[in-house]
């Protein structure tokens, strides 16, 4: 699962092993370093906080999904592609459910983890053959993150090896989100075009009327641009 030939892989695997044994709030960086076979000096070279450790765990699951992501077929509905990718992620996490329950139960919100989770959802979209770049992509990332957070809670309590409850919840949320996502995509396109228009105006390019826009004179007390 985790590539334990790499420092981050060893750290992530060690953290999950300990979290399965006791509450995450009782686990220290020293505990993880000892289990991973690192001194504290070596540990500090790779992570600075437990949030960094959690981010390494997230990226480890990302790698597992991305390494086995099949090529998307032309014409395949986006919802179906996302469903397959997300279920592959839950499959990858299944052996570590006890550890993840411990982490979720006692881990406070962490900015490092939040950034890793959003980046993770962007990669899940890419695995499903869906663009995650630009304003529209950002909207899709946020939408999928919302779906994932909801279904993840269902998965934590789903004791069926076949994950029937998880699949039903994911299908339901994706069907509901598909309609909202279409509207949000339209909003993202509008915002993207508006951003391009204002970028052209601010850079002094020609407007739709054919007249070149002039950059505003610097305000008093504001240093002029020194690049030219």
What do these coordinates show?
The chain is mostly helical and 228 residues long. The chain has one domain: Tetracycline Repressor, domain 2 (Orthogonal Bundle). The chain is built from nine helices and no strands. Helix 5 (78-93) packs across helix 9. It starts with 6 loop residues before the first helix and ends in a 26-residue tail after the last helix. The mean pLDDT is 86.
Task: Walk me through the topology.
Blueprint: H1 7-19, H2 29-36, H3 40-44, H4 50-67, H5 78-93, H6 97-106, H7 111-127, H8 134-156, H9 164-202
Distance between the termini: 53 Å
Structural domains: how many: 1
Structural class: mainly alpha
By CATH, the architecture is named: Orthogonal Bundle
In CATH, the homologous superfamily goes by the name Tetracycline Repressor, domain 2
Total DSSP E strands = 0
| CATH topology tier name | Tetracycline Repressor, domain 2
Approximate helicity band: 55-70%
Major sheet details: none
What are the salient characteristics of this protein?
mainly alpha, Tetracycline Repressor, domain 2, 228 residues, globular
Short description:
This protein has 9 helices and no strands. It has helices at residues 7-19, 29-36, 40-44, 50-67, 78-93, 97-106, 111-127, 134-156, 164-202.
